Structures are given as structure tokens and as C-alpha cells.
Amino acid sequence: MKRQVSYQWRLRELMASAGMFTTSELAPPLAERGISLSLSQVHRLVTGTPERLSLPVLAALCDIFECTPADLIATKAENATIRKVATGDAVVDLSAVRPKRARIRPEG
């Protein structure tokens, strides 16, 4: 059985609980920990859901918010649903189906 995994990036929630409400407030604490990101990169980090994240950035975020990676990234795994496939009995022969001829009537 296949498993479907997903995750939720919770950086914005942690920032709000720490009293940080703008993305520019996160750049100085990151710089103090040796992470130099432009303001646009910090903005993307906060507002988006990263597909790739370097471990130094993850470690710095965990240090800033005094949390674990599990607090930053909520994961979920569940069994994938199985698609039902049509069997040969459900096949419709469309060669016998013909459209009805249209009739044009004069206005009157």
C-alpha cells in the first residue's frame, strides 16, 4: 500500500507567538546566528512553504524560537486511496450512437 505524506510549514505561527509580525523582524536574529539572507529570501521563507531547507537555517530558526524541528514542520502520513479502474463490462460501444440531425425552422 502506498503512503501519501504531506507537511505544514508553521514558521509564521511561531513568529506570531514570539511577537514577530513582519518578515523583516526575522532577518537580524538570523544574521546573529550566521545566516545571511536577503529580505526577499526571508519573506519567501516566512510566507511560502519551502521544499528545500538547509540545516543551518533550520537550526537557526529552532534556536531563535526555542523549538524543535517538529514544531516548525508538522508532518502527516496516510494511506493513499486506490483508484477504481473500469472493467471491460462498463465499456460503451459508441459506434452505434449517432447524433440527431438538427432541423432549422423558419421564424414565423
Q: What Rg, in angstroms, do the CA atoms define?
A: 27 Å
Number of strands: 2
Sheet with the most strands, sense and barrel status: 2 strands, antiparallel
Mean pLDDT: 88
Separation of termini?
Answer: 66 Å
Indicate the overall shape. elongated
Low-confidence stretches: none
- Secondary-structure element order, as H and E? EHHHHHE
Derived from helix and strand composition plus strand pairing, the structural class reads: alpha+beta
Order of adjacent strands in the largest pleated sheet? 1-2
Number of helices: 5
**Strand residue percentage:** 5-15%
Q: Helical percent range?
A: 25-40%
Layout of helices and strands:
Blueprint: E1 3-9, H1 11-17, H2 27-32, H3 39-47, H4 55-65, H5 69-72, E2 73-79
InterPro entries: Cro/C1-type_HTH
Domain HTH cro/C1-type: 10-77
Pfam families: HTH_26
Folded structure, characterized:
This is Helix-turn-helix transcriptional regulator. It contains five helices and two strands. It has 108 residues and is an alpha+beta fold. The protein has a two-stranded antiparallel ribbon.
Provide keyphrases for this structure.
Helix-turn-helix transcriptional regulator, elongated, two-stranded antiparallel ribbon, 2 strands, Cro/C1-type_HTH, alpha+beta, 5 helices, 34% helix, 108 residues
Quick gist of this model?
This is Helix-turn-helix transcriptional regulator. Residues 10-77 form the HTH cro/C1-type domain. By secondary structure, the chain is an alpha+beta fold.
